[in-house]
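To close the section, here is one more complete example, presented without commentary so you can practise reading it yourself. The ligand is calcium ion.
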Amino acid sequence: MDDTHAKILVVENEARVMQSVKELLELHDYQVQLAADSREAIRQLKRDPFDLVLLDAEQPSHRSHCVLDFIDAGKLPIAAVVLNDPIFSDVAVDALKRGADDVLPMPYAPEQLIRSVGNAIRKQRFERDDAAVRERLLESEKLHRYLVERSPDLIYMLDSEGRFTFINSRVESLLGFRKSELLGMHYSTLVYGPDEELSQYVLHERRTGRRASHNVEMRLKRRDGGTHPQAGTRYLTVEINSTGVYSPTDADAPTRFRGTYGLMRDISERKEAEAISAYQASHDLLTRLPNRFLFKDRLSLAISQARRNPTTFAVMFLDLDNFKTINDTLGHLIGDQLLQSVGTRVFGCLREGDTLARAGGDEFMLLLPQAGRIDDAAEIARKILDALRNPFMVESRELFVTVSIGIALYPEHGVNADALIRRADVAMYAAKAQGRDAYALYDESMSADVSEHVTLENDMREALRSDQFQVFYQPQINIDSGEVIGLEALVRWRHPRRALLTPDEFIPVAEDSGLILSIDEWVLREACREMSHWRAESVLPVRVSVNLSARQFEQPNLAATIAGVLHEFGLPSGALEIEITEEMVMKNSEETARRLRELGRHGITAAIDDFGTGYASLSYLRRLPINTLKLDYAFVHDIHTSSTGTSIAAAIVSMAESLDLTLIAEGVETEVQMDYLRSIGCHIMQGFMLSPPLPADAAREFVEKKVKGR
Ligand code: C2E
Ligand code: CA
Ligand code: CA
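Output:
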């Protein structure tokens, strides 16, 4: 802070002294004005701004203190230095009391006067600036407080133990809690039970910046939720953004975690609207039963579960026998009511976990996960036929309907949703042909599509000949560094008359027929060919992993064959990893270990796919030459829904750590899953959230962009 160009008022009645002081001050670049007495001084002070008053205490009027009092009373930001004959020491004390910054003896020493004036001005300017800063802070704090309190969002701070140190008033209208009762309470006071686990890593957020929790959905308790039925639901859905708060840092002192800061937005209305439209998209509005889409979805889920954990189950197709007549003669209104009643009655025959859907018109579909054997399915079919035999009362009319039921079993009659539904439908026609009011089990002789299998097989042979297969590549990413650590090769089939087919739709048939050997080999060669191009064009080399079917893995000379392909395309053995499922590993453990060791001798590493489903033991894994575990996507999927899923994932992470294996989480679809996985120490991920499987060109672009982006 400097004192140059400061403006000084000199109050002096002796012209000689006045003149010499003026010259001295001007020599030091001060601007000087003069006043002969106190009254004149006050007049000037009222008119012009000054930085300092230099005041001779000995004025004839003896009223020098008037000037000091004037400055003090107006709280003017003006410094004061008093000149005084040393004899009158009580005057000096008095002047200091009245706010003078310094008192100098007369006659003054020039250097001392200049020093004293300079100091007083600097001090004054410092105080003035300081006061201005403080005032601005106060203003802005008021403003911030106002904004925070008026915010439509909940704004809060937690201490390092997770207790509220701040929450804005919005909590009172949104949740019915008073601010005062929450301060000092743990955040779990507000968390709706089922979301407690989720809250642990959202609200206990230690990260800051872009990596902190972002737009996570969670439910909060309402204070009166349980007791006031008219208060609506017990919880409120909010979207949370939270970030860690650290104490301000010295350059080298370690930062200290102070707690979290966050914002929660009420998204209940949006959720409700979403729920309603999701309901409408997935349900039949007349009977309130799931529609065809939801049914297919549930069926696909049952199939993937059954594939992992082999079970059998039944699918049924129901068609009312004489509905059309009733509808045509008695009208839609009665027809609609009848359909509703039929739905209710059939539903009454089911057990928990079964799915009844309305497929459209007078058709219903059933998924019976617990009816694994023909006898179970037949028994339920009979029960339904019986239940419909009693007449229905609709608008005081007695109506009779019967139904024909077709049954197909998984996996005997089909391994994908479409095939199972189609075959249950075929069986239903057979039941109609038997005279209606009956059920029939699918049988190959029933339909023309027995040959479907054969057709697919023939198409596949043609596909191999005419290059209809294509390899897609899905990146595996270290989400901490952003680095693409590998690509998984996944086969696709550009079927000339159908959509792009995914492996689920043709690999089972390929395995049955043995064509899988040719497909796997084709994929291996194609992936290696592509990688050798990338290297030639100096795209950063990434490892590619290729899935091997059980039959391929059991081929004699497997290691030599793979090594031969690598050699042919000029690739080092580290450029390839093979993936075999945990199920394959467990099936024939001694033989598997021998094969893996042989591959290892050629420098080819292996990953265990779908890990976590097959109960491979730690001690067994320790003896296998493997490089990577792939956490099965079922566990990743479970992160949202159950706590067993999450704890299994955590157990597998620590297992991989103790074995010093790379762990890749598969099927990561959401930020919540990503955050959770990272929080338990899993950093390499693969899934739609990061990238879906991509055609070669797009995969290459993806890799190049990642490399540049770093
Ligand atoms: P996989 O080895 O477990 O492959 C991962 C599968 O998960 C891929 O399905 C991939 O598209 C899918 N996926 C990736 N990210 C996500 C996600 O975030 N969410 C969900 N729901 N799924 C995701 P795809 O390509 O349909 O392959 C299915 C299975 O077919 C593979 O399962 C693998 O076992 C087999 N397969 C694929 N290509 C080949 C091959 O060339 N040879 C053999 N023998 N089997 C293959
Ligand atoms: Ca795989
Ligand atoms: Ca997998």
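Once you have examined the tokens, check your reading against these statements. The longest strand covers residues 235-246. The chain has 26 helices and 27 strands.
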